[in-house]
Amino acid sequence: MDAQGRLEWVNYSFEKLNGMTLDELKKLKGESIYEVSNHPDIKTIIDKCISGKCSVVYESKNLNKKGPVTWESSTLTPIYGETGNLQKLIIIDTDVTERKMNEVIIRQKNKDITDSIEYAKRIQTSILPSLENIQQSLPKSFIFFLQKDIVSGDFYWFALKDDCVIIACVDCTGHGVPGAFMSLIGYNILNNIVNDNDIVEPGKILDELNKGVIKALYQNNPNNSSKDGMDIAICNINLKTNEIQFAGAMRPLYIFRKGEFEEVKGDKMSIGTKESDRDHEIKFTNKIIKADKGDIFYISSDGYADQFGGENGKKMMTKNFKEILNTIKEKSFEEQHKLMMKHHQQWKGDFEQVDDILVIGFEI
Asked: Do residues 174 and 299 both lie within one domain?
């Protein structure tokens, strides 16, 4: 093209790509690039090219004279003379139809996958205990739940048996879809143990949960060497006696009592541990705590403390997580929930969330 964008010459590949000669193109569409270009904003592109004295790349959809639709990636370049005056404009077109068609397929597949996972989220959310039911039994409580992906490997579980509230914080292997599948396994086994078989002592619940998870994961492939499973903290809270029974698989119970901090550690083995991997029988420890008025309890997954952020982009670590709990413990539980989110967002900043997050706080 000349400096005004009037067409001067095209090569054979252009004619083949568009299914017409230069003369046919001029007769059909016009004499200049402004008339023949398939890009609706070609004037702005040319103005940018000329003012910036640089090449500009753009893509446009082209209807070949013979019928098929093609996509072209075009590189527009200005040519200047020795005195700095614009002499020519050159466009080199590349057929990118296959790539664009693949992009359409990929976008559709991504949409289909995302729609499926969104539907899976509805299913996973529907099986979680009602927060309203939990707070009827534990009015002074909060559940801070923040998935990394659409579906989660963390989940909370709740049951009411006579005068006892049983509540659990569960962290399954992985997050996203794999973690969500594991969460469904754990949720159903817990329901069977407590609601169907009336086992309510936390230590025994974990014993049975461990057996159930192993059976579910390995019954069809006993030689499976994967380390799938879950970490869990579970409490049985007797609302009449104020006695709390606790058991943990790799997860602790935190207590703030009369200005003092206490950590009740769980057993150092995850749910999904095989007998063959241990030197002795797998049996989870059941611990009993007598709660006094004003005692505040927290159970959590490791997602909050494992978040990268801060000035140096490092993990928060458990020490700082405990300090956050210490600073919020005297607030109302509604306010505590808000502060958990605030501290997380401040720490995370522009970093990506690295794991699912679940924190449960309560006072009898």
From this structure: yes
Residue 228: Cβ within 10 Å count? 21
Q: What is the DSSP string of 100-115?
A: HHHHHHHHHHHHHHHH
The rounded distance, in Å, linking the Cα atoms of 202 and 107 is: 47
Measured CA to CA, the distance from residue 214 to residue 182 in angstroms comes to 12
> For position 172, which CATH number holds?
3.60.40.10
* pLDDT one-digit tens code per residue, 107-132: 999 999 999 999 989 989 888 999 99
Chain center to CA of 334: 25
* pLDDT 10s digits, 238-287: 999 999 999 999 999 999 998 899 999 999 999 998 877 666 778 999 99
Average of pLDDT values for 228-233? 93
d(C-alpha 361, C-alpha 145), whole Å:
12
Q: pLDDT class for 222, splitting at 50, 70, 90?
A: low
| CA dist list (Å): 333 to 19, 138, 359 | 71, 11, 12
C-alpha 15/C-alpha 241 separation (Å) is: 89
One-letter amino acid at 137 equals S
d(CA 284, CA 282): 7
- How many domains is the chain partitioned into structurally? 2
C-alpha to C-alpha distance for 329 and 324, rounded to whole angstroms = 9
End-of-domain residue from the set 74, 95, 116: 95
Coil, strand or helix at 249: strand
Give the model confidence (pLDDT) of 351-360 as tens digits: 999 999 999 9
Residue 340 contacts residue 146 (beta carbons within 8 Å): no
Q: Is the Cβ–Cβ distance between 322 and 261 less than 8 Å? A: yes
Between strands 141-146 and 357-362, the pairing is: antiparallel
Range of the domain at 89: 12-95
Cα→Cα distances 107→54, 69, 104, 110, 113, Å: 32, 19, 5, 5, 10
CATH number for the domain harbouring residue 76: 3.30.450.20
Q: Please state, in angstroms and rounded to a whole number, the distance separating the CA atoms of residues 304 and 359.
A: 8
